[in-house]
């Protein structure tokens, strides 16, 4: 495919205003890759980190922001057998979603769930890949366990609440307003803790402690998470909105047999992300197709207004996913 496409570039590290519309050549798929004509692109907090200069794309990835999209396959590279031109997909991207066309490994595409529109489908990959990996594969959440997710109203949080409650966990969430707490309860949390007026450590201790905590906040939440865990509990760290460095007394980790782990999705190998895609297709996509879970949609912005989308995300007023309409 030839020609140019509209994209959003990061003109320099900075605030939302550095997101600049531009034209670029349409890329060609290499071996094992597909080219997607993007209909919608999901907006994620890591896009804002990349824009600010704090999260560089991995080697070989597009320098354009955008980690997920939904649309139609426009071209396939050599060796691709699982998809054909014209198929509608949603896809995890190594970058480059804020554009009319995006490349990704064919094995990182998933079908659009039955009955779901492309706008909602564009908001699935980044959070579902992240939650399956960190809550279930790494965190080992099991039915009946007490699960605490911080940032319960975020894209990640709204996904984690729904999946964990669907698989039978007792879900607790923190959020920064009563409206966000109400949203968490509506998604299946049995208790939502407004962290501005209530201490989540006391709330979890009153329940016997959390068996698993998914944390994106870090900073002083790290020692507080340790206190909020039940004996043998696990803490999975996926981001550090309040910073990664803290002083910690590890005696409690040892004596109460706690596990501290974490991961980031983007730098993982193509093969590793393909395995996650397979797990999602088998375990989670049937739930989406049956309408038993669904992404929580916040606001839609045109591609050209990506800066406004980032400003909304960084205002933290949103609940669920912000999306860019591309075509
Ligand atoms: N490790 C991975 O593989 C991976 C993958 C994707 C995303 N992530 C991370 O997961 C987090 C959530 O991503 P997302 O796209 O779902 O983001 P998001 O929708 O923007 O949500 C972030 C939420 O965190 C809450 N929050 C708590 N403390 C905060 C603080 N100090 N500063 C800013 N926000 C704070 C905010 O809600 P309140 O009003 O409740 O404070 C906000 O809504 C991000 O940190 C992202 O980098 C990690």
Describe this protein's structure.
The structure is a single chain. The chain has 327 residues and is α/β, with parallel strands linked by helices. The protein folds into two domains: 4-124 and 292-325, Quinone Oxidoreductase, Chain A, domain 1; 128-262, NAD(P)-binding Rossmann-like Domain (Rossmann fold, 3-Layer(aba) Sandwich), CATH 3.40.50.720. The protein has eleven helices and 15 strands. The strands form three sheets. Strands 3, 4, 5, 6, 7, 14 and 15 form a seven-stranded mixed β-sheet that branches. Strand 8, helix 4 and strand 9 form a beta-alpha-beta unit. Helix 3 (125-138) crosses helix 4 (155-166). The longest helix is centred in the middle third of the chain and has 14 residues, at 125-138. It is globular and about 60 Å long. The two termini are 17 Å apart. The relative contact order is 0.16. The structure holds NADP nicotinamide-adenine-dinucleotide phosphate. NADP nicotinamide-adenine-dinucleotide phosphate binds at residues 44-46, 126, 130, 151, 153-156, 175-176, 180, 216-217, 238-239, 241-242, 263-265, 313, 316. NADP nicotinamide-adenine-dinucleotide phosphate (NAP) is lined by residues 44-46, 126, 130, 151, 153-156, 175-176, 180, 216-217, 238-239, 241-242, 263-265, 313, 316.
